[in-house]
Amino acid sequence: MSTLWRSLRQTLMAVLCDRYAIVVMVGAVILYSFFYPAAYRHQVAGNLPVLVVDEDHSATSRELLRKLDALRVARVVGQPADVDSARRQLEAGHAEGIVVIPANLERDILRGHPAKLVLLGNGAYLGRASWVLGSVADALGAFGRDAVVGQAAFMGPPQAPPVTLVQRPLYNTQEGYGSAIVPGVAELIVHQTLLMGIGVLLGGRRLALGRRLRFDLPTLAGMALGFGLIGLFWYAGFTAWVQDYPRGGNPLGQLLGGTLFIAATVTFGLFVGSFFRTRERAFQYIIATSIPLFFLANLSWPAVMTPQPLVWLAQLLPTTSGINLMVRLNQMDARLADVSHELITLTVLLLLYGSLAAWRLLAPTGTEGIKS
Length: 372
Known about the structure:
Elements: H1 2-17, H2 19-35, E1 48-54, H3 59-69, E2 74-78, H4 83-91, E3 97-101, H5 105-111, E4 118-121, H6 126-155, H7 177-209, H8 217-235, H9 238-243, H10 251-273, H11 280-296, H12 308-314, H13 318-331, H14 340-361
Parallel strand pairs: 1-2, 1-3
Antiparallel strand pairs: 3-4
Helix pairs in contact: 1-2, 1-8, 2-7, 7-8, 7-10, 7-11, 7-13, 8-10, 10-13, 10-14, 13-14
């Protein structure tokens, strides 16, 4: 037992005294928690350029133009003479959307005829395009409701619709990009920084010793416990709390799920880090895997659209179950029964990678091994 606690203390001191480890395992988490979400602090894209092709040139079209220019999400940056010219500017990246006001718009409205407006968006950037299209569509809808008043002067008041649709978001109450993406990315950041810190320490120690690392069981257990405590200190909704994203959910479930996630990550990191001959290998690994790990978690890309072999491969990664588990527990009020698959998967991965890490790092039976 004394060996375990000594190894735990030495692991924590090694993190605090190693400038690379302290920057990666502590500094990076703080940095990402404050500065990475800053780009999404408004939750929606704003001030995106829109082109308006006005073929009507009437008082009604000018009023519509003023409504569009008053939007926070969009700003009118030009009025090309025709649609072809506007499309060339959009394809060149000068605008995110095009609104086409057809000729005789005002005449059709006043005569009670159906009037049509054309809205085109740049699909190269789905997030920006969706906000431009949605916000401009809302403005056009408001304009259409105002136009009904003008029609009523000629045709009498219209009948009220029998059903009114009221949309209220359940979990992402602000319907913001930051609330949808950052909580999942934060879990990936904790996973990757923890792996990087483990890899830096193991790679640096192996380079100094010049041979494969071997530890006795209490020493290895103390190292795993130390890394786990560091991970648990940072995982528990720190970013969501600092950035005021939706949170709360199931606190007891978060404690259980977060502990399993961090434990599986630590054993995975010890196994992977045992192959690093230098500390630089840890940085190379993280750079190469961060984006694939996020997409394989199927948080932003649905599993039904992912090739089945990749879905099976993703189950071997702690991030796949861990990210979905923590987002559902923290943001969606999920019960433990709702995330039983993720809990079981993380438990299996903990046992799997714990066994593999022991195979790689435990000293052979009957030998003293290399002390931490």
